[in-house]
Here is the input.
Amino acid sequence: MNFSELCKLSGLLGRFSPDGRCLASCVQYRLVVRDVNTLQILQLYTCLDQIQYIEWSSDSLFILCAMYKRGIVQVWSLEQPDWHCKIDEGSAGLVASCWSPDGRHILNTTEFHLRITVWSLCTKSVSYIKYPKACQQGIAFTKDGRYMAVAERRDCKDFISIFVCSDWQLLRHFDTETQDLFGIEWAPNGCVLAAWDTCLEYKILLYSLDGRLLSTYRAYEWSLGIKSIAWSPSSQFLAIGSYDEKVRILNHVTWKKITEFEHPATITNTKTIVYKEVEKSPSVETERLSFPPTRALASSLFSTQSKYDIAQVPVSLHYIKPVADRANPKMGIGMLAFSPDNCFLATKNDNIPNAVWIWDIQKLKLFVVLEQLCAIQSFQWDPRQPRLAVCTGNSKVYLWSPAGCVSVQVPTEGDFQIVSLSWHSSGDSMALLSKDNFCVCYLEREEVK
Here is the structure.
């Protein structure tokens, strides 16, 4: 495993291009595009203000930079560095911006969610979608890029509109049986749209492409409801994480619950493997010691190394009792992700912030628990194989695969607290992001296999 030098970064804005050739990162108002393998700078663009959001077009030819404070979006071309485009929403303001799947239209959501403006880069034409809903996940595209669903709110009722992305024609418009629609997400096969209610009511609705209600699922009433959802890559399973610290799995045939996964503070099942991160003091040979110590030696002396031990069950995990009288309590299933081969599901229960739970989807059983020394900040599956990367806000990256578990110290000078990570589409490397810096971790070919 090799690591690049640290590069400057702001706003956690580091993104691999969809074709895997480039890595875009932002430093204040500058956009830097690097070659993935050498990290040599290919292009440097200067925006009008501090960049708050970036996104690659699907064909990796353009990059969108949004400056919400100024209500401006700037678009840059990799093929023609002199070409540029500026979209100014003016007094309408700007709260969100994204590409359409064809990479030639930009969708801007204006302040107060008054409308979505669809700008065409080819014809310079403009279309408007009225009444978009101010919710966590209000726009969703099918994976093949043919259809777009938009959550809407008008006359105190929730609606969903489905548009054809090729010409932005309205395909279907229907109301949803929700009190306060919170998010929408297409199944990967594009046949089913999941829509779920605010956390005050446990309710998830499943619609077909033509707007028919296929099923409604409610696990319980009169308590905080859904916190996170995830579709399996095969579209066979829908995992629903809720505030009661459970994940419920629905099947795609009857849309009924097939099982539920509990996240107790004590692991008692002897068939569950618990990997516990433990600190180990760094071993330094006395002949290497010099005074004053070299910088590399000093950083290795004072950085605590760690390794995994297999804990004997029963194991008690670090449990936090949520503060009941505060909004957005730290409780329930906050993170969910299926492995790309559908075999595993990784979850995080916010009451037990230091643990990642990995479930075997074929057997519908708990397989592994990783107990870290620090709280889990982020995890992501390798897009090519069942391998999970985890970061906990320190300078280590953790990798789990069915073969085992490893903790790797990033060899950097100074403080590098990894709070986010993203895999390259090949699974050969990943970007490790901190508040002010990023580096790229390159995995050896043998490790990749």
Remarks:
- Helices lie at 295-302, 445-448.
- The mean pLDDT is 93.
